[in-house]
Amino acid sequence: MGEVIVVTSGKGGVGKTTTTANLGAGLALMGRRVALVDADIGLRNLDVVLGLENRIVYDITDVTGGHCRLRQALIKDKRFEGLFLLPAAQTKDKTAVSPEQMKALCAELKEEFDFVIIDCPAGIEQGFKNAIAGAEKAIVVTTPEVAAVRDADRVIGLLEAAELRDPKLIINRIRPRMVRAGDMMSIEDIVDILAVDLLGVIPEDEMVVISTNRGEPIVQDEHSRSGQAYRNIARRILGEQVPLMNLDEGGFLARLWRRMIRG
Amino acid sequence: MLDFINRVLGRESGGSKEIAKERLRLVLVHDRASVSPQLLQALKTDLIQVISKYMDIDEKAMEVTLDSNERQVALVASIPVKSMKRATRTPAVSI
Asked: ipTM score of the complex?
């Protein structure tokens, strides 16, 4: 029996979809069977981030509407053994799926997968309510900005009201140099304010843009810092105690060296 | 220039993060208390009515907000007084 985790944030553009894709791929790399569910109906994105956009035949509303079986709609990612995607519908709206249907869908998926990870749409309306309906655990993604942390606080309140206790926090796109200069809120600042457990921190990394351009999750890039951060988070989800990575990116030479070995 | 030297030497610059933290803190006090701007506005109107009986206040510069420390949420009102009213109505004092 698997675990159903929803990835949410409130604010858009903080990296929910990238996080969902990389945690899914990361857990699959570690030998787990993972189903990723794109719950952002009408604004389908997870397929593109994963590079699976050309393989979609059926989507989530075809499953809930009984037009196909769940197995037919799941796209197998050939690069990651055990990773599957259930894509969102692009032409329907958020009301095309009901919370009850989501619950039934998640129950069916977790029979077969170790992890079911749901990519929640931005906002706190119907799409959000649908996305969290079948979840047992929640991950909240934020960035070190006032607006993103504020929305994360609101979402944490709504998750707890929906009996999704103890959501775990991921701080994305942190810039260690700006934190050191006192121009960006630090990990401690954000954890203090939100008063939730920290699951991981992902440094700002241009390589994410490049890998997303290619449709290849960064988590498989051995040399990138964000890839390392996602691998660490995947290991923590599996119950390992992994210390936070050293965010100090080093001097000019260290950065140059990393750039060279990346090829 | 000083800013540039500070940056080269890795010293703390202006520290806009403190501004961010303070703004965030105040926004969250309001969010978490679920106090609507309408409620605060209504409270402000009532406050003006009551206080105007005793003092001449600057209504435009008046601020009513929530703040918090570790444990409590406080209502903070900053009400500039233009002048005290001459006691036109001496409060009834019972002896």
From this structure: 0.81
